[in-house]
Predict the structure of Nitric-oxide reductase large subunit.
Amino acid sequence: MTKQKLSIISLLIVCIASFTVLLSIGSDIYREAPPIPTQVVSTQGEVIYTKEDIQRGQLVWRSMGGHQLGSIWGHGSYIAPDWTADWLHREADNWLELAAQDTFGKPFSQLSGSQQAGLEQALREDVRPNSYNPDTGIITLSERRSDAISQLQQHYIGLFGDDPAWQPLRKDYAMKEGTVSTAERRQQLTAFFFWSAWAAGTERVDKDHTYTSNWPYDPVLGNTPTSSNIVWSILSIVVLIAGVGALAWYHAALKHESLPTPPSQDPLFDSKPTASQKAVGKYFLTAIGLFLLQVFLGGITAHYGVEGQDFYGIPLSEILPYSVTRTWHTQLAVFWIATAWLGTGLYIAPALSGHEPKFQRQGVNVLWAALVVVVLGSMAGEWLAVQQYFDLDTSYLIGHQGQEYIDLGRVWQVLLLVGLLIWLTLVTRAIRPALSQQGEMRAVVWVLYASCVAIGLFYGAGLFQGKHTNLAIAEYWRWWVVHLWVEGFFETFATSVIALMFVRLGLIRAATANSAVLFTTVIFLTGGLIGTLHHLYFTGTTTPVIAWGAIFSALEVVPLALIGFEAVESYRMRNATPWMRRYKWAIMFFVATAFWNLFGAGVLGFLINPPVSLYFIQGLNTTATHGHGAFMGVYGMLGIGLMLFCLRGLAGDAKGWDDKWLKWAFWSLNIGLAAMLLMSLLPVGLVQFFAVIENGYWYARSPAVMHSPLVETLIWLRMPGDMLFGAGGIFLGLFLTKLVLDAIKSGKAAETEALSS
């Protein structure tokens, strides 16, 4: 059996086995998710919340921005608190104060150490036992706990309204005035917060840990790391070391063939772009425009970490609150990178097959118009939802779904899926002849096409959750989109495209590229598919999620440990032949992708991947550090590199191609991103890490830490990196502007010449 056939079989086995595990785990999550009670009642029979209150409260949370204003179970934004941890801590404080007054007649802070310890033990004995009755669906709470919750309701009702007494706290949390528009909605919101906190503080039946595996860390409530958390973390490190060793051994044993002699002329330079390929140019213009808007919104969002409701004294939150700017910032990251990659797919398909289907150009134009409508329409809907112009059901449909990276309303989400299916159809029509061609690169072409199919279809996983879906299930499907769609299949797509480009340029042998792509895809997907579960450790899931997620997320890092070889090989190709100067900066962006794959995705990713690590730092700025390093560093740089390769083909020998702007863009973007991470995001995350260990998770997200002089100074230190990064985006925009103006000028000159002849 040839290596190629062995790799294909291995790839199929990995995919089938991995999806079997993922779906099996999903079934387990569905069965074991924290139950939503029919009623929450006190021992006196008073109804505190109903199932409808909790479900409507979840819709209120979605409508105000959801994950974009604080977090639930550690998932979301970083300035406002994690509402789960915040509720647990405040409820415990209220309970202890009531108990101290009832038992000793004085405040809890004035009690002796032994008295405080006794009441804290009584608190745990009241909170941790599971009082959910599966037959009636009722949760019963003690009278004292009911009184503590009653006090806590008033805090959140005031906070999410416009009561002046809570204005300083709203400012600390970067919340706009009147975050939730009516008292009824604010009351319902407290029901959802209670349920998420109940799941985090109540032990599963016949277990010694809560529904969230004792997350968040809060020793007063008995929330400390479980034994499974620690054991699987240690085993994941062992697996990582073994995997890196095995891959290094394999790499050393490989027979490294010498690179072919590059052709004397650029094999792509003389080929003329087809009509549909020319139409793809607008995708890249759009991608850069969205990128610049995303960078601008990122600066505003970061600044809210200091001033809360203002932007250098301007009360910007009245028009563009933090929850809107962060929604748009994260969503545009997906939109602009996806636009660049989709444009690459539309460009490369006819290049591979040499076939231009009938009406392909019209299809490319229609798809572009549809994508613009979805982008602008979804952004408008999100703004209207956060400003509370919609009723809750309308908000879900065309406003804000409240879940990070799939925030756009359900109607827009469906339309985006339709757009992706149109893209898949266009790619299929153009690439079909290449799929039937025999040759050394056939397997890579098929891997490329399979990744296109996955990109077109797997965004639909987000539709498996509805507006009332249990949050544990909703998170499961959300990460199918965020991790599998973005981090899995786009990675495979990019690997295949780069290999095909280098083969077409005559820089690497087809057989070598074929084997490398198949092997790399197998290795990436081995950890990448099941590695999705590392996002779900503490989202109401069971211990097997921790076990599978810990081991396979460690395997995700294994191929990244040797990614430096890829960087060096790509770097050498930039000078392989004189005509390669045309592609220098495209290749340099591929080199940057390899670096950030190693550092942003690998090093910073493994910092938060082991369960015991994520237990303490989930939802802190360490997560944002990895997010920026991996998303922009890997997928953003890769999108720019792919775009430049396509633009080189579209531009031909245009005089408007100016490497000077690309050089400045490259170094500004990369140095700016590194400064942003190392001077601000990572140090803030480490400060929060110490705060968690010393006082509990709630404290690390509190104003006492987030608005301490040290943290605010570190946030200000983000400005140099942000400004340099923003300058890189502007340089890239100027490069593209000059290229377009030159094309327009050349077109007019050609037209004038034709008329005069």
Observations:
- The CA atoms of residues 245 and 262 lie 34 Å apart.
- The chain has a mean pLDDT of 89.
